[in-house]
Amino acid sequence: MNQITISNITVDIVHKNIKNMHLAVYPPTGRVRISAPLRIDDDTIKLFAISKLSWIKRHQRKFKNQERISPREYKERESHYFQGLRYLLRIKDTNGRGFVDLKGKTYLDLYVRKNASFENKQRVMNEWYRQELKNILPEIVEHWEKKISVKVDFCGIKRMKTKWGSCNIEKKRIWLNLELAKKPIHHLEYVVAHEMIHLLERNHNNRFKNYMDNYSPHWKQIKDELNRIPVSHADWSY
Questions:
Q1: Residues 82-96: pLDDT tens digits?
Q2: What residues are paired with 92 via a beta bridge?
Q3: Backbone dihedral region of 84: left (phi > 0), alpha (psi from -120 to 50 degrees) or beta?
């Protein structure tokens, strides 16, 4: 991967077997990447980047100003989120396998062995988040498969550093960020729909946006909401 610098901004360059150049600014730090066709040289890419400089700076400011959630320590009465709602953590002792239990609309009880390590508490929480996503995803995926008229062969969950989701078009395989378990359900649905529409259009071009407008008319508003909600400092570092 090559890099160029414009106006003190480092731009990663990735050459691919594609037709057009694509510019992206990634959270949380505003990292800039340009995907370029194999035939395009760095001078041409630099001119393209310069022409998009104001757009790059605008998006970097947005990420810079976005609120960050400090790293979780898994301590009593610490705030944790599930499906967009805030819960207070309570640590409970158990002699068996660790688990999580929601208590009404206020408390999230984390059952672990006495004096459990930070890593163990984090593992139990992440396993719970993963299972909760797995419980609701089949219905969401089926709904959007019917609505968009596509078929997904696999939908998985993993911790992702810079994306809410990804789609392997050839294998019809979708991956979703584990962090989505903490977000409202309509944010999860937006990401699922977004990745599924890539099965109809690979790139984020006007055709893709037209599909989004057709199948999810409020997608721009939801996208803005998702980007405004505080992101996890720990999970989004790279």
A1: 999 999 999 999 999
A2: 111
A3: left
pLDDT in tens, 69-123: 667 889 999 999 999 999 999 999 999 999 999 988 899 999 999 999 999 999 9
Q: Taking Cα atoms as reference points, which of 10, 8, 30, 11 lies closest to residue 22?
A: 11
More confident position, 53 or 163: 53
CB 7 within 8 A of CB 28: no
Domain ranges (residues) in the chain: 2-65, 69-232
Buried b (16+ CB within 10 A) or exposed e, 125-163: beebbbebbeeebeebbeebeeebeeebeebebeebeee
Number of CB atoms found within 10 A of residue 205's CB: 11
Strands 31-37 and 9-16: parallel
pLDDT at 56 over 80: yes
**pTM given for the model:** 0.73
Rounded to whole angstroms, the Cα distance separating 167 from 170 reads: 9
Domain 69-232, CATH: 3.30.2010.10
Mean of pLDDT values over 146-167 = 92
* The token pair that represents 66 in the structure block: 């976005």
Q: Nearest-5° angle of CA 42, CA 29, CA 34?
A: 20
Q: How far is CA 221 from CA 23, 121, 161, 225, in A?
A: 22, 35, 23, 6
Structure tokens belonging to residue 53? 């400089």
Query: Residue 1 has what DSSP assignment?
Result: -
